Amino acid sequence: MEQPTFVTTPIEPWMPSRRRKVAAWATHLFTATGAVWGFLALLAINQQEWVAAFLWMGVALFVDGFDGTIARRVRIRESLPNFDGALLDNIVDYFTYTVVPAYFLYQADILPQNFRMITVALILLASAYQFCQMDAKTDDHYFKGFPDYWNVLALYMFMLRWNVWLNLGITLLCVVLVFVPVKYVYPSRTKTLRKLSVTLACVWGGLVATALIQYPNGDVRLLWVSLLFVVYYVGVSLYATFKKPAGA
Asked: Is residue 3 one of the residues assigned to a domain?
């Protein structure tokens, strides 16, 4: 008996339209603007315009918070396969999340005078190590190790006017935590409580922005309330790290 013959139709490779390519380039440009906002933050730090520096760092944070979502929607890797968007993102993030806030910590009266340079050097070296780790972002979309939120750390130290020795201790602890494999939530991508995390992150951003705009005459309680999100963030991250797998 003659066997039936099956004809398979070759699958055509997906080809991006010109409009999608333009959108992809625009997205990369959007990511790259983070370096500009970071540079403006450096200029503000040089002029001791501390609030302006944080506002520029906030703009860079906003860009980083949304460029990934936009990139996935425009299928950026398929649209521009010869451009390394992940490398661009890492370059900009190292500058805005590490170099700029480290310079802020060095210039502002936040750390003990005799320990500023060594502390800043440790921040730069630890973060350089982390940004080069292949698993710095896990397959299930967590950050591995303290995710270089030096800008957030500097903000609380400056706004709440903590003792310089306390600031030093917290900073050194975070340097050590870079090397501790705790899984930290990536709010816009981690599936665990993603909607709640994104919502709370937006509320946190509103509270911090309000406190900054009102500085130095604002209500400091806004910042203390915003710390509740930090507690939530750390709690969810620790739970994700130490929870037992299903069926274990």
From this structure: no
Q: Which H or E element spans position 135?
A: none
- pTM of the complete model: 0.87
Number of domains in the chain: 1
Distance of alpha carbon 186 from the chain centroid: 8
- Specify whether the CB–CB gap between 151 and 101 falls below 8 A: yes
Q: Taking a C-beta distance cutoff of 8 angstroms, is the pair 71, 32 a contact?
A: no
pLDDT tens-digit profile of 189-240?
888 888 999 999 999 999 999 999 898 887 889 999 999 999 999 999 999 8
Is residue 248 in some structural domain? no
Q: Which of 225, 176, 184, 190 is nearest to 205 (CA)?
A: 225
Distance CA 233, CA 237 (A): 6
Cβ proximity of 146 and 97 under 8 Å: no
Q: Does residue 188 contact residue 65 with C-beta atoms inside 8 Å? A: yes
Residue 12 domain-assigned? no
Q: What are the tokens at 189?
A: 């991508």
In this structure, is residue 196 part of a structural domain?
Answer: yes
Domain of 83 in residue numbering reads as 18-242
Cα separations in angstroms, 240 against 5, 82, 148: 51, 35, 19
* Cα torsion angle, 193, 198, 202, 208, sign: positive
Tokens 């130095």, residue located:
216
Q: How many CA atoms within 13 Å lie on the side-chain side of 27? A: 26
List, in sequence order, every beta strand (DSSP E) within 74-161: 142-144
Structure tokens at 202: 């937006």
**Residue 142: strand, helix, or coil:** strand
